[in-house]
């Protein structure tokens, strides 16, 4: 997840996290991971990170779904920022 955000990479699927030198294990049961950056333009502002207790726990359909959710999250974050700015300007 960290490399996805820090490097601004596109979605990243790790089929077996124990073989990935960049993976930082926080849960002993996690065997695969799908990380998708939330982007505003080319700027990463967050990551949707899914973990699974099975090897190869994510497929292309999962990836496509999470990429779509990340796009919606980026829109929601932008709308929220705009509303907060409008509220501040009305004070």
Order of helices and strands: HEEEH
Strand fraction: 15-25%
CATH class: Alpha Beta
Number of domains: 1
Order of strands, widest sheet: 1-2-3
Rounded Rg: 16 Å
The number of helical elements comes to 2
What's the helix and strand layout?
Elements: H1 2-7, E1 12-14, E2 32-40, E3 43-52, H2 60-89
Antiparallel strand pairs: 1-2, 2-3
Explained architecture:
The structure is a single chain. The protein is an alpha+beta fold. The chain has one domain: 2-Layer Sandwich (Beta-Lactamase). The chain is built from 2 helices and 3 strands, in the order αβββα. The protein has a 3-stranded antiparallel beta sheet with strand order 1-2-3. The radius of gyration is 16 Å and the shape is elongated. It starts with a helix and ends with a helix. The model has no long low-confidence stretch (mean pLDDT 88).
Label this structure with key terms:
three-stranded antiparallel beta sheet, Beta-Lactamase, 3 strands, alpha+beta, 2 helices, 24% strand, elongated, single chain, 91 residues
Write a brief caption for the model.
This protein is an alpha+beta fold and 91 residues long.
């Amino acid at each position: 997840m960290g490399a996805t955000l820090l490097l601004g990479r596109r979605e990243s699927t790790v089929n077996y996290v124990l073989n990935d030198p960049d993976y930082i294990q926080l849960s002993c049961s996690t065997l695969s991971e799908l990380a998708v950056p939330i982007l505003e333009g080319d700027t990463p502002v967050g990551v949707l990170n899914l973990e699974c207790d099975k090897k190869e726990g994510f497929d292309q359909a999962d990836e496509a779904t999470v990429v779509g959710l990340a796009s919606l999250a980026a829109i929601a974050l932008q709308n929220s920022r705009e509303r907060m700015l409008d509220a501040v300007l009305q004070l």
